[in-house]
Structure formats: structure tokens, C-alpha cells
Amino acid sequence: MLTFSTFRYQVLKIRSVLPFFSLFGLILHSSIAVSQPTVTLNKARETGIIAGLAVHSLVNLKLESNKAVGNIHYWKIRGIDKAAPLYFSPKIARASDITFASASLLVLYGIAQRQSPERNKATLLMTQNLWMTWNITQTTKIFAMRARPYANEAGFIARKNDDAYSFFSGHTSLTACMAASHYFYDRTLPVNDKKPAVTLGLAALSIGTGILRIKAGKHFPTDVLAGAILGTGVAYLNTKLHAR
């Protein structure tokens, strides 16, 4: 029987993901444009970016190795985060892994459809964007140490650092970066070379991944939104840096 409290909870769950859909609507229809016509590569710049990313990854490994297991922060659950289930669902978590893997395969397909040298440019730019997003995501998780939703269950005992890596969602930040990178790169190409179907597919998979991460008890809605914003922002800024 549907009661007022259960109805209110369902409304909260729906409301929590609406901003996520709106975000990708803005990505696909916003007036933010890469004003320069083409993406260009510079050996010194690309070498510097890759070297910086490698150093950042090493720093993350060092920081993570120094974190004690059980060092977990229980943030107060407010607003839309109350819609997150405080239990873990392995089946839904596996489904989110599948949508993540599907987005990765679609990215490879989209790049393969481009003509050389655009294929090489798109590959390097996507690699940089994803690596940047991953590094920033990991650094944030290490310092935030936010308890995942399932870690808020009564009597829960943390047994691994991953239990405290809720903020923000890596699955979402990376899939959002894939979708946004493809979209912003497309905007530097002539109309006939654009791949809008791939962009839409990536956006749908990213949205699906974010929703599944919430339903699996792995992330709060704010974790997903923060991840989507980061992935989109990195893709936009790095593409604009190269589009000269």
C-alpha cells in the first residue's frame, strides 16, 4: 500500500537525478562553444601535460598508501542525499560497471570512426582528459574520505579505504568526461565529420551510470553531480586549450 511517506521518498529519488539530466541537456545545447576551428597539438605542451599527469598519479599513490584503513568521515546527510539507499546492492553495482564498460567501448568506436590525423588528435585529447579527471577524482576522494551510503548502516565496520571513497563518483566523472570530450571535440570539426549519435549514446550511458551508482548504495546524488561537473569541466577546458 502506497503511503504518504513512501510516495514522498519516491519523489525525492526522482528529484535527486533531475539535475543530472539537466546537466547533459546543457552540455548538448549550451551556447558554450570552442571558438577556434581545429584542435592542434604541440610536442612540448603535450609532453608537459603527460609528465604532470604522471607525477600527479604518483602523488595519489603515495597519499593513498599513507591512509589508514577505517579513517572514514561520516558527512551529515542532507537534501537530495537523503534519497540514496543506505545499503549495498551488488547486482546494481555490476550493472553500473557494465554501463561504464559500454561507454568505454563506445568511445573507442567513436575514435575509430574518425579519419587520420583527427583520430590521433582525438585519442590524445581523450587520454589527457580522462587521466586528468581520474587524478582529480582520486585526490578528492583521498582527502574527503566521505563514507559511502552503505557505510552509514548501523554497525558497519570499514575494512578497506574504498569504503570511504564516496565523494565524488569516479564512474560518473569518467563517463561524463567521455561524453563531454566527444561533444566538445565534435564542435571543432565540420558538420559532415561530427558524430552526434556517439555523443548522445555516451551521454545516456553516463546518466545511466550515475543513477545506478546511487541505487547501488555506492554514491550519494551530490557525489554523482560533482563527478559529472568535474568530467565536463575538464573536457571543456582542455579541449579549449588545444583548439587554437
What does this structure look like?
The chain is an all-alpha fold and 244 residues long. It has a domain at 85-244. Helices cover 65% and strands 0% of the residues. It contains seven helices and no strands. It has helices spanning 4-29, 43-65, 90-112, 118-144, 170-186, 196-215, 221-242. α3 packs parallel to α5, α3 packs antiparallel against α6 and α6 packs antiparallel against α7. It is globular and about 55 Å long.
Labels describing this entry:
244 residues, mainly alpha, 0% strand, globular
Q: Could you give the topology of this structure?
A:
Blueprint: H1 4-29, H2 43-65, H3 90-112, H4 118-144, H5 170-186, H6 196-215, H7 221-242
Helix pairs in contact: 1-6, 1-7, 2-4, 3-5, 3-6, 4-5, 4-7, 5-6, 5-7, 6-7
